[in-house]
Amino acid sequence: MIQSLLIANRGEIACRIIRTARALGIRTVAVYSDADARALHVREADEAVHIGASPVRESYLAGDRIIAAALACKVEAIHPGYGFLSENAQFAQAVLDAGLVWVGPSPTSITAMGLKDAAKSLMQAAGVPTTPGYLGEDQSLDRLAAEADAIGYPVLIKAVAGGGGKGMRKVDFAADFAQALLSCQREATSSFGNAHVLLEKWVTNPRHIEVQIFGDTHGNVVHLFERDCSAQRRHQKVIEEAPASGMDEATRQALCAAAVRAAKAVDYVGAGTIEFIADGSEGLRADRIWFMEMNTRLQVEHPVTEEITGQDLVEWQLRVASGEPLPKRQEELAIDGWAIEARLYAEDPAKGFLPSIGRLDTFDLGDAYRIDTGVEQGADVSPHYDPMIAKVIAHGKDREAARRSLAASLADTVIWPVKTNAGFLVKLLDHPDFVAAKIDTGLIERAGPALLPPGSPSIEALEEAASALVPANGLSGFRLNALPQREARFLLDATPISVRVSAGAQPGKALETVLIAQQGQVWELSPWRHHGSGGTASGDGAIVSPMPGRIIAVDVAQGDSVAKGQKLVTLEAMKMEHSLTAPFDGIVRELNAVEGGQVSEGAMLARIEKVQGDV
After folding, report:
1. According to the model, what pLDDT value does residue 613 have?
2. Angle CA(173)–CA(174)–CA(179) in degrees, nearest 5?
3. To which H or E segment does residue 309 belong?
4. According to the model, what pLDDT value does residue 235 have?
5. Pairing state of beta strands 514-518 and 521-527?
6. Which CATH number fits domain 542-610: 3.40.50.11540, 3.90.380.10, 2.40.50.100, 3.30.420.40?
């Protein structure tokens, strides 16, 4: 067994790997950037090495620095986690060339499956069914547009080196193809350094079904059943579950057998996931499920597989990397119950899911069955990295038991002042279609505003919180046999409101602020007097940067006429593109955004002046 391990990652997955390594008696070394100097994974590891500045290219993507740290700390192996360098064949080879053990598949396997077009061709040769589409080398706009016309709209543009929903766009109409392609290529270049794309036919009622596979150096390959990752927003997985609802045993056997064939076709060693797209319009059928891609690493959603099989997949990785055979044979693996995982993001659903950054002054995830996280109360959510701050996992005897457990856990979540999607997740878990397992990748988009949590707490919760802010002797007037009441002004998340309050029970014990938590949503209520006039001007046409980031596109010029909702500037932050749009019809009177420029939070990028007569 490996005795020492460097984890070439950060956050939740680094903490997850450390937990298993510690149980196995393996010494761990963490690496960290400037932004992560006080991070949880740094403190939990036996040792930690600083590898560079906060931007990922200067730290977590700096493979030479990571290998140097491993050699300096005299570790035996490197575990890449997921993301960053986990599917980088050149880095994997460099690790091996340095005389270290690579906890992952061979560079050859990574290369074979790393590009979606090459992987699809390989799978076709191995007899694994693939989605109809275009895999050609000609990447000109004319050729790609012509191929899209031939496939028939809607089509899906996918970066061949992509993952995590980045570099992926669904296009419904030919008129939108060129702009979608440009955005897709730009995001793919930024995220993966490769603008090459493929095209696929958009599948009706698509369900995203994936199979966990595992191989060892002794020629054994097994599957650990399937997961359903169909609940997605903008091609990003939001909720994952195992097993997949509606999967009969015959279809399961056919699907999992195809996944094992796919793994064997590239002599796969270690943890991997074979991803399939299923046409769910007539239920799950083996002849309506096609290979999409293979992820040559551990997946974010691996906990649901662990929960239904009782296996520790990180332990499997470390044992296989040590040269041991797989811990279980196929006939020894079985499904026990149901597991569902929700990805808790630092983002604000009320503002178009814009990432939220800052200090986690309050971070309480309640009594969840399982929590995988890389942050704690007092930690900072950085703009430099992915906004996922935790994975909340539930396990039950069946799907409904797991669903109820997870929804209850998320409803009890209290996180402040960073905004999260907890309330959105509760709404999604309780949506009638999710409850009935009528899920496909378009569910969230179809449900739309119905999944957005309420913008304010209930009147009863407001009145109770407001009363706690008012001293018992701070009210005038009274009602017989009742606490005195009056209308008082407060600020709810900086918005002025008027609330009927009764005096608190303890004179002189009034609080400065109160947090109101309901169904995963959190608001701060504070007395009006603490904020002077309070509030900020709105509707003045100022377009400000919501967070630090890089301007990657400016679509208007000073003096241009713009319509409400028209895209003005595209900002890249927290590994995603964010479009800033015109708040109303008007004229671009001021433009400070420059393509390629770095901007800070609150920087004014443009100012739109309303056209005369607009209201």
Report:
1. 55
2. 95
3. helix 302-309
4. 85
5. antiparallel
6. 2.40.50.100
Do 418 and 354 contact (CB within 8 A), yes or no?
Answer: no
Q: What pLDDT sits at residue 493?
A: 84
- Contact assessment for residue 222 and residue 333, using Cβ atoms and an 8 Å cutoff: yes
Q: Which CATH class is domain 132-201?
A: alpha beta
What type of residue sits at position 594?
V
Return the pLDDT at 45.
98
Is the pLDDT at 262 greater than 50? The verdict is yes
- Residue 227 known to be catalytic: no
H and E: helices and strands count for the chain: 16, 35
Neighbouring residues of 615: CB distance < 8 A, sequence distance ≥ 6: none
Contact 21, 317 (CB under 8 A): no
Q: Give the position of tokens 């064949």.
A: 89
Q: Tell whether the model's pLDDT for residue 531 goes beyond 70.
A: no
The pLDDT of residue 536 is above 50: no
The 10 Å Cβ neighbour count of residue 598 is 11
At 505, the amino acid letter reads A
pLDDT at 575: 66
Instruction: Name every residue whose Cβ is closer than 8 Å to that of residue 399 and which is 6 or more positions away in sequence.
Output: 241, 245, 338, 340, 437
**How many alpha carbons lie under 13 Å from residue 534 in its C-beta half-sphere?**
16
Contact (CB, 8 A) for 294 and 272:
yes
Average pLDDT over residues 519-538: 64
Rounded Cα distance between 580 and 566, Å, is 8
CA dist., res. 287 & res. 324, Å (int): 36
Alpha helices (runs of H) in 489-554, residue ranges in sequence order: none
Cβ-count burial 325-362 (b if 16+ within 10 Å, e if not): ebbbeeeebeeebbbbbbbbbbbbbbeebbbbbbebeb
Taking the C-alpha atoms of residue 256 and residue 274, their distance in angstroms, rounded to an integer, is: 9
Nearest to 169 by CA among 191, 154, 147, 150: 154
Domain 4-103 adopts which CATH fold?
A: Rossmann fold (3.40.50)
pLDDT of residue 532 exceeding 60, the answer is: no
* C-alpha–C-alpha distance, residues 462 and 215, integer Å: 56
Q: Which long-range contacts (CB under 8 A, 24 or more apart) does 439-443 make?
A: 439/207, 439/228, 439/230, 439/231, 439/245, 440/205, 440/206, 440/207, 440/230, 440/280, 441/206, 441/207, 441/208, 441/230, 441/232, 441/235, 442/205, 442/206, 443/230, 443/231
Which CATH number, 3.30.360.10, 3.40.50.10490, 3.30.470.20, 3.60.10.10, labels domain 206-451?
3.30.470.20
The end-to-end CA distance of the chain, in Å, is 71
pTM of the model: 0.82
The strand pairing partners of 392, in sequence order, are: 342, 371
Nearest to 195 by CA among 166, 156, 167: 167
CB 365 within 8 A of CB 408: no
Per-residue pLDDT at 534 exceeds 70: no
Nearest-angstrom CA–CA distance, 158 and 290: 16
Options 10, 16, 207, 297, the catalytic residue: 297
Distance CA 215, CA 268 (A): 6
Domain boundaries, the chain: 4-103, 132-201, 206-451, 459-531, 542-610
